[in-house]
Amino acid sequence: MKVEPTVTVIIPTYNRSISLQRTLDALCAQTYPLQQVEIIVVTDGCTDGTAEMLCHYEAPFTLRVIEQLNQGPSVARNQGAAQARGRLLIFLDDDIESAPSLIEAHVRAHARQPDRVVIGYLPPVIQEPTDFFRTGLWVWLEAMFQPMRKPGHRYGYWNLLSGNFSLEAELFARVGGFDPALRCHEDYELGVRLIKAGASLTFAADALGYHHETSDLNRSLQRKYQEGRADVMIGRRYPELCPSMPLAHFWEPWSSLSRRLHFLAFAWPEGGDRLAASLRCTLDILEWMRLRSRWRRRLDELLDYWYWRGVAEELGTRRELASFLQYGLVRADESVHEIELDLREGLEAAERRLDKERPAGTRIRYGPWPVGRIPSQPGAERLRGAHLRPILATDLAWPLLRALALEGAAGKAIDADRLFAESSVQSSETVYANENT
Questions:
Q1: In whole angstroms, what is the distance from residue 376 CA to residue 213 CA?
Q2: In Å, how far are 19, 76, 230, 277 from 181, measured between CA atoms?
Q3: How far apart are CA 374 and CA 186, in angstroms?
Q4: 177: helix, coil or strand?
Q5: Which one, 56, 105, 224, 360, has least CB within 10 Å?
């Protein structure tokens, strides 16, 4: 009797035959029943023998191959999703070596949780030798996951990473899949629509896949150029997101060289490119001299330049950028919905109100005494009750303590120890829940 798959793993690939085989080999060792899994590999115009490797690959799961002309990862993922038979879709990149628990962890995280998007953990594996660039890349890749480990993390579209995530096939179809016009930050743009649709993002540390990162410095600079272009394209569709993008910080160059590069990116890109090429050569010298801090500053200046070079390619002039940002700020202000919470009514009452009204931001007081504000974050999920106690126990701890002291001085009976204990316990429980979801 043929068993219909419950899970479909979709892997877009382009000229990475050896890496793809490692990805498939790791999927053969999953703890989840492989007879309930199908793997769809979408070859995106491969010319390196990937098709031949797949033709002879012997797998303990159903392996299906879709071939297409080179159209980018968004189209490839959409093609795979369109032909998937599983109710749950797991998207993996072709350089991910999954731990045996990956599929089972994704499935478990979705149990009895409709409209959930699960982001798996991708610890980087960096090729030797570990030079300045590769060391910095490892730190940067690891840092992407640290905020999601914190209790009460408020997810934003920037947390959706397409290398290892899952969602129900019905939800993916409902929001329209990946935007085929984007070849960079296509996962961010999908994250925008998922959050707008009310999906709940969560992090599953045990949905683990090792990311064999092969980027080099030149590819990273080119990637920054593409990110600049993509952010403008996304900002045109969702202008209210502009304050959450690097676009919003154009007028804050942090060095005199950055100011010159900013100017050249818009006014004389040919000259800027020549200067950037010269500065690129100095990185090798700085590394040879072991001047790590100066090397890091120079790299940041180059990454900054190529990002703005991509922005300039899309927008043209600094004046157009200013108009673009101004419109985005107006739209962001229009979308803000804040409420006021009085903690004197109790933490549970405040949490219930947040869950019911889902505001973009909130002002908090304890009786007449102000505690602080949880501001609106463009592109982030609206506030939930689970966000409140961790913030009170960390960012707003001192203002809350001051408000409690003032309330006590006014002769009101309060139990500050209980209030802080509840906040801290809830924070610990949230950490445990995130790591065992």
A1: 34
A2: 26, 12, 10, 29
A3: 29
A4: coil
A5: 56
Give the residue from 415, 433, 351, 360 showing the smallest Cα distance to 388. Answer: 351
Name beta bridge partners: 366.
Answer: 369
Domain ranges for the chain: 7-214, 219-333, 338-435
Q: What is the pLDDT of residue 338?
A: 92
User: What pLDDT shows up at residue 412?
Assistant: 58
Q: Can you read off the two tokens belonging to residue 330?
A: 């107006």
The structure's pTM equals 0.91
For the chain, list residues with pLDDT below 50.
425, 427-437
> Among all chains, which residue has been given the structure tokens 């002039």?
317
Burial class (CB in 10 A: 0-12, 13-18, 19+), 59: middle
Model pLDDT, residue 411: 58
* Helix, strand or coil, per DSSP, at residue 261: helix
Q: Which residues of 181-207 are buried (b: 16+ CB within 10 A; e: fewer)?
A: ebebbbbbbbbbbbbeeebebbbbbbb
Query: Which amino acid, 274?
Result: R
Question: Which residues have CB under 8 Å from 202's CB, separation 6+?
Answer: 109, 116, 117, 118, 119, 155, 434, 437
- The superfamily in CATH containing domain 7-214 is Spore Coat Polysaccharide Biosynthesis Protein SpsA; Chain A (3.90.550.10)
| Model pLDDT for residues 184-206, shown as the tens digit of each residue | 999 999 999 999 999 999 999 99
The tally of CA atoms less than 13 A away on the side-chain side of residue 316 is 4
Beta strands in 296-386 (DSSP E): 338-342, 361-366, 369-374
> Long-range CB contacts (< 8 A, 24+ apart) of 396-404?
396/364, 396/371, 396/372, 399/370, 399/371, 399/372, 400/343, 400/366, 400/371, 400/372, 402/369, 403/343, 403/365, 403/366, 403/367, 403/369, 403/370, 403/371, 404/366
Question: Is-contact 235 187, C-beta < 8 A?
Answer: no
In this structure, what is the dihedral angle of CA atoms 319, 320, 321, 323, given to the nearest 10 degrees?
90
Q: Where are the beta strands (DSSP E) in 93-199?
A: 96-98, 116-121, 124-126, 164-168
pLDDT digits 0-9 by tens, 110-141: 997 889 999 999 999 988 778 999 999 999 99
